[in-house]
Each structure stands twice: as structure tokens, then as C-alpha cells.
Amino acid sequence: MRPLLLWSDVLIYLLVLALCLFFLRLRRDPQTREHWRRVFSTRLGMVTFTLILVYVGIALLDSLHFRRALEPVEGAQRSEVFYNNQVTSALDVMLVGMGERFERTYSAPFALKSFAKENMKDENGLLYRDFPLLEHAGRHLSKPAERWADVVARTLWALVCGLLISAVLVGVQWAFLRRSSLPWYASWGTQTAVICLAVWLVLISRYYHVLGTDRGGVDVAYQSIKGVRTAVLLGTLATLIMLPIAVTLGVMAGYFKGWVDDVVQYLYTTMSSIPGILLIAASVLLFQVYIDLHPDFFSTGMEKADARFIALCFILGVTSWSSLCRLIRGETLKISQLEFVQAAHAFGVSHSRIVTRHILPNVVHIILITFVLDFSSLVLAEAVLSYIGVGIDPAMGSWGNMINSARSELSREPVVWWTLSGAFFFMFVLVLAANLFADLVRDAFDPRTGSGVAPA
Amino acid sequence: MLTYIIRRLFYAIPILLGVNLLTFTLFFVVNSPDDMAVSQLGAKYVTPEAIQSWKKKNGYDRPLFYNPDAAGSGAVTETIFFAKSLRLFAFDFGRSESGRDITTDISTRMWPSLAVAVPSFVVGIWVNICVALLVVMFHATRLDRWIVFVFVAMMSISYLFYIIGGQYLVAKTWRLVPISGFHAHGQFWKFLILPVLVGVVAGIGSGARWYRTLFLEEANQDYVRTARAKGASEIRILFRHILPNALIPILTGIVVLIPSLFMGGLLIESFFGIPGLGSYMLDAIKSQDFAIVRSMVFIGSILYIIGLILTDISYTWADPRLRLD
User: Fold this and answer.
1) Is residue B243 classed exposed, middle or buried when 0-12, 13-18 and 19+ CB atoms within 10 A define those classes?
2) Span A314-328, mean pLDDT?
């Protein structure tokens, strides 16, 4: 086993670290604490935040990559170890080989037989056409009729295991948090549901394909879970790349005014007047050409896909800063007219100190709101970009690629609906949770809807 | 007013120049003239001479920005950038890399795009306002909270699902309309119903939610309280007081989108096989036809800038307190 560090892995761990430090720092500010308290004093805030954390957790687990050592070949030198070209992650280990149980082609959820007929030979060597049995589904059954009884029995068993595990986890949390006034029980309920679902999925997918298999025979549930990392990373990294550009330019334009303001306004009007999709497509094609010309930079297909992925995040970030920049410019213009900034000027405080001490803390809420709002729109945009052909590399699982391939499947007879449903379910839950959470954050942090006005 | 508009139009020139420079540089790095020649000629016929003659025929045999061999102003004018990009300012789009006249293509493909985009836009706004008004009537009840939740849920569904779902349900299962295609004459409305329906339904979530916030913002104003104190009925307050005032932000918010209707919808058109400008653009991206993309980016930027100017004008029209000068 040899660890493999992809660039996006490094970035996501750095990002999580930075966010944790950021929140720890913010804890010291009583006003910000009050805002967060408002977010988490609702049940909805607890549930959606727990769900988002689950997705982020899956993404983090899926970001610990390594390459398995291959079995030494007979006669080869013992000291030399070869590594598998297939990149594995910690998540794959936890899913107990869910992604390694391949079938030959489509199969429906919980099916025992394949979707397509094949030529087979019976005991007497006669050719006949029928649906072949699946390699990894229902092989333990003696009769096909026992299937549903078996599924129910295993589901109950998984439920018992899941409840036991979550009882331990929730119990530990309860011991620490029972005096808290926040509605933690909403979070615990969500945790229990997620754990039960996860345990059920892992246990039962050893015997069945829960969401069927796709055209290449890969388990759809596995693919959907692998899409989590792509979505979470894209949503966070792209915004993170966009933030420094937008904040620097916006604060500069609003604070210094004059020609700086003119230049920044010119830049963002130009950027936003180009149809976004064309700009992104052009940039992605540009990078694709670069990758194709330098194949020796990347030792595995995964690294190549990763390079393209980071480029995509970068491009999405660089092309989408204009709206946030406009907001921050406006807010900075307003703040720099206020008395406390004037007073700072009068005392001879330097520009950099005014910006960091007086301007930035007062635009943080805009940055935060944009961060959570953009996350869900980026996840949705990924699917569209993959459809146009400038999205994620097919070697890297993504919901966009799944939807793209599922387009022709709906016209089949009988309909292949499970690939689309798998991608839909996982994407919908993440985007819905993010959208609802973003609403709560906006309500709590936006001064216009702030605590001063009692809700009607 | 007129001087303001003229000044804004002059401001547009450096922006368009910047747009041109950016797209030109981007696409030129992707696709050098040699690559374009290879992809247009087909790999079979590629010889150095053939590439040279293709470049000469299509005008790619010149330097990029500066031509030291030409005399006088020719140093700037006899370059690819001048010939290919700056000519766009005279609305001279030239020919695509596959030899078709872009101006004709755009003027014929504009109509199918408009035929889908305008009904979707108009019906969409109407439906959103109606739904939002309905929700405002139930404001601060349990029903209101659930409807807002449904709006957010509808926003969280990818546009692709609306299209695929609509095609599957309406066209394939119920067989009410054709799945895709377009017909310029006769029963063309049959082909338009589904794209318009999908466009409207997909927009309800975000649209109606936005309008609801606008209505509620107005509902907190003093004049509403005054009206209520004078004994006006809730229905009258909603339709005679809140609606006209909330229409101002709605109007100014959507005016910027009107010119872009010409560009059509990228996804809708490609899924429903409508030969409009959206699918034109998508095909151009896929076949890397530089000339078409350049023209479309230029048109798109112009339409966006027109939208911005129209927004400013609509502000003065909707709010007489504002003056542009």
C-alpha cells in the first residue's frame, strides 16, 4: 500500500483546516456567536447542518487515496513491489469492496438476473438465449423466490446494528450536550437515520446491487457515493478561489475610489458581459489541450482527472467573481463613509489597518452568505457543464456524468431509471440541505433581515 | 436622457474591445490556425501545402496583433485580430470555419430561439407573480412555510431533471406532444408547448420565492399600515397597494434579461432539438468553430450591455424621482 496525494486532497484538507480556524476565531466575537446561535436554534438548521457534515465527511474520507500493492508475480524479485494503477480511497475500504463487484451490463435494483439476454450453453452444450444470473447478487439464495424475505431479514438486521451504533454515538453526545439549550435532538435524529441507512447499504450491498448497475456493470449506489467528493470539492474550492479575487478588488474599488474603482468596474462589467458558459468552455478546452500535450506529467489516470478537476474549479472561480465583487464594492463604499472610518482617517490610521480592522469585519457577512449560497449553485452547474462536455473527467465519478449517460437510458424498453434516480437522490439531498442552510445563514447574518425587526 | 444613453453607448466600446481581446486570446491559444486547418480539412487531407492554402483562403495566414511587413496603418490592420475580431464592430461576422455565412445563420436561427424564449419568459413571469401573490395571502401561516420549503426543494432540482422528466412524462408516457423537434410552419406550437412548460416549471422555485420576498418587503412599508388603518380590505391592499409598488423592483430586475432572450436557452434547445441560437452555440463549442463562438460572444455582450442601459432607463420610468444625467 502506498499513499497517493492528489492536489485536490491537499487543498480540501487545507480548506477544512482553514475553515475550522476561521470559526474558532469567530467564536471570540459575541455578535457572530449570537448569529450562529440563531442558525442552530432551529431544528432545520441542525438537520441541514448535520446532513452537510455527513457529505463533507464522505468527501474527506474519499480524499485519502492510496494505491494497493499488487501480489508479487511468480519468479519476480521479492524486494520489488508493484502498485495497482487503480487508485483506492479510505471510503472504498469502508464500503467493503462495493465498487469491485462488477457485472457485465445493466441490472435493475435488487435484481438477480442481468438486464440483457445473452447466448448461453446448457449442460448438454445446446445454445439458448436467456437472462444470465448476476455474478454478485443473490448468489447465496437457494431459490429466487426467497429474495424478498431475505432482503427484509437483512434490512431488519441492519436496522438493529445501525440503531446500536447510533445509540452509542448519540449517548456520548448526550452526556456532553444535555444541558445545552440548542435542539440537538434534531441532529441526533438525523445522525441515527444516516447511520442506519449507511449500515444497511454496506451490509446489503454485499448480496445485492441496491441501485442496480449501469451500462458498464458498475454498482450505481457506489457511483453515486463517489460523486459526493466531486460535488463537495467543486462547490467549496471554486468559491474559495473566487473569494480572494472578489474581496480584494471589491474592497479596493470601494475604498480607494477614483481610477481604481473605474478599472475594477471595467473588469467586472467585461467579465459579466461574456456569456459565462462560453468563457468556461473555452478555458476548459484550453486546459484539456495542455493536458493532452503533456501526458508524462501524470502517472495515473486519476491524477490526470484530478488536474482537470482543479483546473475546472479554478476556471469556475476566476469567471464568477464579478457579482460578489459588485456587492462588496457597494458595501465598502457605504462603510467608508461612516463616522468610525472617518475618525480612523483623522487619527492617521494607515490604509491597510483601516481595511483589515474596520472594513473587512463589516463585509464578512456578505462573504459568508455568498459562500453558502454559491455552494449549491456550483453543484448544480457541474451537471450542466458535464452535459456540455466541459465538466468533470469521466474517470472521476460525478453526478453530472451519471445524468449525462442516463439520458439515453430512459428511451430503453424496459426503462433504465436507476442511474438517474441514484444521481438525483444524492444531489437533491445535498443541494436542498445547502439551500435551506444558506437561507438560515442569510436570515441570521443579513442586517436587513436582522434581529432588529421582529418577524411579522 | 438622450445624452446619457449616447454616453453609455460610448462606454460600451472599451468593454466590447476587452471582451473581444479576451475571447480572441483564449480561443487562439486553444486552437492555433494550424489546428483549425487540420480539423476543418479532415485528417486525411493534411499536407503542409493544404494547411497553408486553407489558412490563406480563410485569412489566417497573417500575424496575430502586429504585422511588421505591411506599410503604414497596415501594420495594425493586416493582422488576424483586426480582420477577425475588430470587424465584428461593423456587424460583419464573415464565414464560419466550415464556410457558412454566419449572418444568415444567426438571422434564421434567431426566430426559433425567440419562439421558445419569449413565451417561456412571459408565461414564467405571470405564473411566478400569481403564485407569489397566492403565497403572500397565506403569509405567516404553517401553509406559507411549507410552500416556501417546496420552492426551495424545486430550486434544488437540477435543470436537467426538469427537462428529462418533462420529456419522459409528457412526451413519452402520456404521448401528448412530440419529444423533440421543430417545425417552422403549421403545427409548430405542438413542439413549443413542452419546452415552454419545462422552462416555466423549472423557474417557479427561484422566481416565485424571489417575488414573495419583494411583496413581503413592500408589505412591511408604512403606506400598507396606513391603508390597513383606513380600513382597506386585505385583497385591496394586496392588489392596489402592494402589487403596483412591488412591480418596480420586479420590472427593473427582469429588464436586463430581455435582450438576452435572443440568445435562446442552451440546454432547452439542445434537448428539444430546436434549431435556435442556443444549440448553434453548443454545436460551435463542440466542433470548436472559432468564428461562430467569437460572433456569439460579441452579440451576447452587446445584448447584455443593452440590457444594462434598458435597466437604467426603466428605473427612471418606474420611479419619477430618479434623473439620469
Assistant:
1) middle
2) 90
| Residue A27, SS3 per DSSP | coil
Q: For residue B13, give the chain A residue with the closest CA.
A: A270
pLDDT digits (tens, 9 = 90+) for A87-137: 788 888 888 777 778 887 888 888 888 887 888 877 787 888 878 888 778
CA separation for the pair B27, B306 (Å, rounded): 25
Buried b (16+ CB within 10 A) or exposed e, A14-33: ebeeeeeeeeeeeeeeeebe
Chain A residue nearest residue B290, CA to CA: A282
ipTM topping 0.90: no
Taking the Cβ of residue A363 and every Cβ of chain B, the question of whether any pair is shorter than 8 Å is answered with no
Cβ distance of A274 and B152 shorter than 8 Å: no
Which chain B residues contact residue A411 at CB under 8 A? 172
**CA–CA gap between residue A177 and residue A184 (Å, rounded):** 8
- pTM (2 d.p.): 0.88
Distance separating alpha carbons of residues A10 and B10, to the nearest angstrom: 47
| CA separation for the pair A19, A362 (Å, rounded) | 19
Nearest to A393 by CA among A315, A317, A309: A309
Quote the CA–CA distance of B291 and A125 in Å, as a whole number.
62
| Percentage with pLDDT > 90 across chain B | 15
Query: In this structure, what are the phi and psi dihedrals at residue B324, rounded to the nearest 5 degrees?
Result: -100, 125
Residues of B with CB under 8 A from a CB of A: 14-15, 18-19, 22-23, 26-27, 29-30, 139-140, 149, 152-153, 155-161, 164, 167-168, 172, 216, 219-220, 263, 266-267, 281-282, 285-286, 288, 293, 296-297, 300-301, 304-305, 308
Q: Which residue has the cell 454498482?
A: A219
Question: Left, alpha or beta for A391 (phi > 0: left; psi -120 to 50: alpha)?
Answer: beta
Name the residue facing A283 among B18, B26, B161 (closest C-beta): B26
Whether A318 and chain B come into contact, CB under 8 Å, resolves to no
Contact A42, A440 (CB under 8 A): yes
Q: Grid coordinates in use for A338?
A: 461612516
C-alpha cell recorded at residue A272: 459579466
**What are the pLDDT digits (tens) for B52-86?**
777 777 677 777 777 777 666 666 666 777 777 77
Interatomic CA distance for residues B299 and B111, integer angstroms: 15
Interface contact B297-A453, CB threshold 8 A: no
CB A130 within 8 A of CB A117: yes
